[in-house]
Amino acid sequence: METFVLVHGAWHDGSAWDPTVRHLESRGQRAFAPTIAGHGKSAPRNVNHAQCTESIVRSIVDRSLRDVVLVGHSFGGTVICKVAEEIPERIKRLVFLNAFVLKDGNSLMDESPPHYVELFDRLAKESADHTVMIPFPIWRESFVNDADIETAKWTYAQLSPEPYQPCTDKLDLKKFYLLQTPKSFINCTEDIALPPGEWGWHPRMSSRLGLHRLVQMPGSHEVIYTNPGGLAEKIWEAGRD
Amino acid sequence: METFVLVHGAWHDGSAWDPTVRHLESRGQRAFAPTIAGHGKSAPRNVNHAQCTESIVRSIVDRSLRDVVLVGHSFGGTVICKVAEEIPERIKRLVFLNAFVLKDGNSLMDESPPHYVELFDRLAKESADHTVMIPFPIWRESFVNDADIETAKWTYAQLSPEPYQPCTDKLDLKKFYLLQTPKSFINCTEDIALPPGEWGWHPRMSSRLGLHRLVQMPGSHEVIYTNPGGLAEKIWEAGRD
Amino acid sequence: METFVLVHGAWHDGSAWDPTVRHLESRGQRAFAPTIAGHGKSAPRNVNHAQCTESIVRSIVDRSLRDVVLVGHSFGGTVICKVAEEIPERIKRLVFLNAFVLKDGNSLMDESPPHYVELFDRLAKESADHTVMIPFPIWRESFVNDADIETAKWTYAQLSPEPYQPCTDKLDLKKFYLLQTPKSFINCTEDIALPPGEWGWHPRMSSRLGLHRLVQMPGSHEVIYTNPGGLAEKIWEAGRD
Q1: Which residues from C are below 8 Å from B192, CB to CB?
Q2: CA distance between the termini of chain A
Q3: Which chains contact A through at least 3 pairs of Cβ atoms less than 8 Å apart?
Q4: How far apart are CA C13 and CA B153, in angstroms?
Q5: DSSP 3-state assignment of C214?
Q6: What three-state secondary structure class fits A91?
Q7: Can you give the pLDDT at residue B133?
Q8: Burial class (CB in 10 A: 0-12, 13-18, 19+), C1
Q9: Whose CA is closest to A184, among A224, A135, A234?
Q10: Helical residues (DSSP H) of A110-164, grouped into ranges
Q11: C148 contacts in A (CB within 8 Å)?
């Protein structure tokens, strides 16, 4: 039995993993999906990246979890890198699900394509609480491109505005890049949340991991909603010894 | 119910879509596959790109079609861009099936790899009527690489020489690049009609669409012949709201 | 009925193809999988690339095989290029299974990424007999990333040290690049034995073949172990007329 801790991406909270957790549990695995600080519909938004990290560290330590397969999706990739720096002795393997693997010293926005930077900067400025909500047309076409319109709308209703500070905090990742923790990367082959090519997830992000295991599956950036059963299987393949 | 208008590529005529049309109809959709001017076994070849466009515009207007999901395959991509410029009010979404999305001011040949340009220029010169017929070995290996030899030969027999003028006409696409029409791109993952990489379909052509929906399927450039049922399903996924 | 000759890669011997041979035979095909000189657990390691080539030429000529579909995997790609130069009249088609297609004048190591060059140079120096054994962590994560740990260990136990000389011999491939022999390339979509991108198999290696047929399948660099049935099917698709 493996112990999975699943760290969600921007606009999500831990409940986005519920179907994936059930699929992992039905395979006899343990899986936890904590909500990152500053996320979830009712949480206050004034958090920085260090607080995001600390909230996940706490949820692992408070449950006394060890030999954790720590999975990060999208923005969650930036969090699991820092969590691994803080409690490497509890982490068995890191799994990046089309997730950011930032270069040392960069923020998430430093590695996002210019059209997102321009849009998100503006949206954050226009917001009352320095947050960004992804516009529905982008969500529908670039994030859940494999969903029908009903699923696209339902999933959009699950989202809540993303605190912008953690996306612009520059991260010291020197320790992460020295860790010997085994690593895997799951690439969803129809994921265009980052545009394929120069700004894409794979191999841009995956190649930074050094020795790692690649696992691929069909689907969009949000297989967490559109194919949680298939995702659970690939997380299991990515996480096994 | 959606209304699909399917625009074929070079060497083809509308009949190449017949099985796809039947699959779409069996899903309860409407689908039309007009033949572009200058195409089809018996048509005179002295056409330019504007006449190609006009023939598709006419077939849409004459049928009084509205809310059209307009699909272009290969060369057909250059046609649907210009059709959308002329009658944007009738077009609900543009779907590019491994199709050319030219930069403003370019011709199709301007964006084709040098070995094709050299070959096609020569073949057009050698022809009696400024047309180009694709040599069978290229068709078999690069266009229907997923077919058996009988299918390769049968499909080749359906082709007719391509008028070269529409492939060398430079297209003003300024209006196209301002259109807000939703767009999708279908990429067939074994399509090597354009060589993968620097000269490939995806993401070279798809990335020019700006916000768009990506759909992928296995198969060669000619899934229109080798997998029309799968193609109909992907056209439907690409075209839905 | 086709006649397949299957040429293994580094660390392997001909027996790695046994399940694939059985699958091809059960389809009514003939298939042979000779062991390259200097390979196999008990063979002396003091061979150069010319001797590797000669051993495969001999196994084809001694069996009086003609119309051979000659398949090379990985390092085996360098061998089948040279075999085709020597006995082109016996070769019907060349099939590269995520195999090296070297530029004229290069060695395999000349086209390998720096981290492999550094590691393999060191391992060869440290060995008693100028051989290189791939470390298990690289094998498990980058070569059999689609296997479970038991399969990973079992397959590793089948390997034996690779003679380094054939990997550093620079090959004259001028004749190969003039051959009109039909060619196919099989790409396994999760193969990260060469890292995707700048140093990857596809399209880096495949594009050098000029006109060729692309076939793809899911799986790692070692589908020879993890999916021999699927591999046999793709070899058949790649090899047919």
Answers
A1: 214
A2: 11
A3: B, C
A4: 39
A5: strand
A6: strand
A7: 98
A8: exposed
A9: A234
A10: 114-126, 136-138, 149-158
A11: 240
Q: Which positions in chain A have a beta carbon within 8 angstroms of at least one beta carbon in chain C?
A: 182, 202-203, 206-207, 211-216, 237, 240-241
Instruction: Note whether C143 and C174 are within 8 A (CB).
Output: no
Distance CA B162, CA C147 (A): 48
Dihedral class, residue B191 (left if φ above 0, else alpha if ψ from -120 to 50, else beta)? beta
Please confirm whether the linkage preceding A203 is cis (ω < 30° from 0).
yes
Q: A-side interface with B, Cβ within 8 Å? A: 137-138, 140-142, 145-146, 148-149, 189-190, 192, 195-197, 200, 218
In this complex, do B213 and A141 lie within 8 Å of one another by their Cβ atoms? Answer: yes
DSSP H or E segment with residue A97:
strand A91-97
**Claim: this prediction has a pTM higher than 0.90:** yes
Query: Could you read off the pLDDT of A129-183 as tens digits, one per residue?
Result: 999 999 999 999 999 999 999 999 999 999 999 999 999 999 999 999 999 999 9
The answer to whether B188 touches A119, Cβ cutoff 8 Å, is no
Residues 6+ apart with CB under 8 A from C6: C14, C17, C20, C21, C31, C32, C33, C71, C73, C235
Q: What is the DSSP letter of B100?
A: -
**Residue B211 to residue A145, Cβ atoms within 8 A:** no
* Strand partners for C95: C71, C184
One-letter amino acid identity for A154? W
A27 neighbors A228 (Cβ within 8 angstroms) = no
Q: Quick one: angle between helices B76-86 and B49-62, nearest 10?
A: 60
Which residues in chain C are contacts of B222 at CB distance < 8 A? none
Name the band, by pLDDT with cuts 50, 70 and 90, for residue C24: very high
CA C178 – CA B126 distance, rounded (Å): 26
Q: Which amino acid is at A46?
A: N
User: Contact A241/C196, CB-based, under 8 Å?
Assistant: no
Asked if the Cβ–Cβ distance from A211 to C149 is below 8 Å, we say no
Structure confidence by residue, pLDDT tens digits, C108-122: 999 999 999 999 999
Question: Do C216 and B146 count as a contact with CB atoms less than 8 A apart?
Answer: no
Contact B152, B144 (CB under 8 A): yes
CA distances from C224 to A140, B34, B73, C21 (A): 40, 46, 36, 10
Torsion angle (degrees, nearest 10) of CA A16, A21, A22, A28? 170
Chain B residues lying within 8 Å of A200, measured CB to CB: 203
Strand order in the sheet with B91-97: B30-32, B3-7, B68-73, B91-97, B183-188, B213-217
Return the residue of A nearest to B204 by Cα. A197
Strand partners, C32: C5
In sequence order, what are the residues at sequence separation of 6 or more whose Cβ sits closer than 8 angstroms to the Cβ of residue A223?
A: A146, A188, A217, A230, A231
Residues C36/C76, Cβ–Cβ less than 8 Å: yes
Q: What is the pLDDT of residues A35-66, one digit of tens each?
A: 999 999 999 999 999 999 999 999 999 999 99
Token pair recorded at residue C174: 């001028």
The verdict on a CB contact (< 8 Å) between A197 and B203 is: yes
Q: How sure is the predictor about C93, in pLDDT bands with cuts at 50, 70 and 90? A: very high
Instruction: Tell me the pLDDT tens digit for each residue of B196-220.
Output: 999 999 999 999 999 999 999 999 9
Q: A76-86 and A49-62 are packed helices; what angle lies between their axes, rounded to 10 degrees?
A: 60
Residue C99 C-beta-side C-alpha neighbours within 13 Å: 26
A17 min Cα distance to partner chain B (Å):
24
Q: Which residues of B touch C237 (CB under 8 A)?
A: 146
| Average per-residue pLDDT for chain A | 98
Quick check: B56 and B28 in contact, CB under 8 A? no
